[in-house]
Known about the structure:
Elements: E1 3-11, E2 20-24, H1 33-43, E3 48-52, E4 59-64, E5 69-70, H2 74-86, E6 95-100, E7 103-111, E8 116-121, E9 126-129, H3 134-139, E10 155-158, E11 162-167, H4 184-187, E12 195-200, E13 210-212, E14 214-215, E15 224-225, H5 229-243, E16 250-257, E17 265-274, E18 277-284, E19 286-295
Parallel strand pairs: 2-3, 4-6, 11-12, 13-16
Antiparallel strand pairs: 1-2, 1-19, 3-4, 4-5, 6-7, 7-8, 8-18, 9-10, 10-11, 12-13, 14-15, 16-17, 17-18
Organism: Metabacillus flavus
Keywords: Isomerase
Family: Belongs to the PhzF family.
Amino acid sequence: MKRIKVLHYDAFSSKPDKGNPAGVILNGDCLNETEMQELARIAGFNETAFPIHSDSADFRIRYFTPGQEMDLCGHGTIAALYALKENGLLSDENEVTVETKAGMLPIQLTYTSDEILVTMKQAEPVFKAFKGSRAELMESIGLADGDLADDLPIKYGTTGNWTLLVPIKELQAFERMVPYNKRFPNILTEIPRASVHPFCLETHDDEADMHGRHFSSPFSGTVEDPVTGTASGVMGAYYKKYIAKNEESEINLIIEQGNEIGKEGRVRVKVAQDHGRLHVEMTGNAVFVKEFEIAL
């Protein structure tokens, strides 16, 4: 029997039990894929990250939900970097490269007096049209068609993981949302394994620019992600492409999430435009919560 140590970090917050919890398992090189999936299922986090050896980067990270492996996970990456640093496995360099199934990630580390800020470059954003039923989509998150912001498009977007970006008129609607995740694949016929990410431009925090919730694909084995790094990145790209169309070539946004479930967190997103191409960076922090063991 193996006894595996799991490190619990909360990303996008400096307060334990806020933000987005992630598990980190540092001895991933001793585990096979089946064992990783089983550990993620038992640990129960939306994502568990396994930093392992890479021949082409500083290290590689594999990400598992309780139900499947993911190509990329923003909060899992931040948690893994904190765990590596705090356990003496990461040098004092300001730049590292991480290999993922979504490609190579250049990571910038900024050290302050009390935390590390982790900045991830995400893949170039891609958007696709949603051609399904708006009424069925809104019913699947407990709302009505009238809650949609009609002046903005519903779009699939990705900077590593596909999600459906759903513009909502008013902040108060987020308290009424109830996700029926099992309906998603039959509604999201273009990309059935996508998650659903409603957002609006009203916020709780006066310093924030956008508010969101993130409802997981049923294939992931989870229901809601408290604060989502990859989806925040593609939200920023959506903002630049469909809202701030003619503004400056670079925008900086603060995105809030998790308020409705007591897991408030903040993600900083920078989107730069160069010759029509969008470049997205996401920045976040994390805090250690506890460690525990799983017998495998």
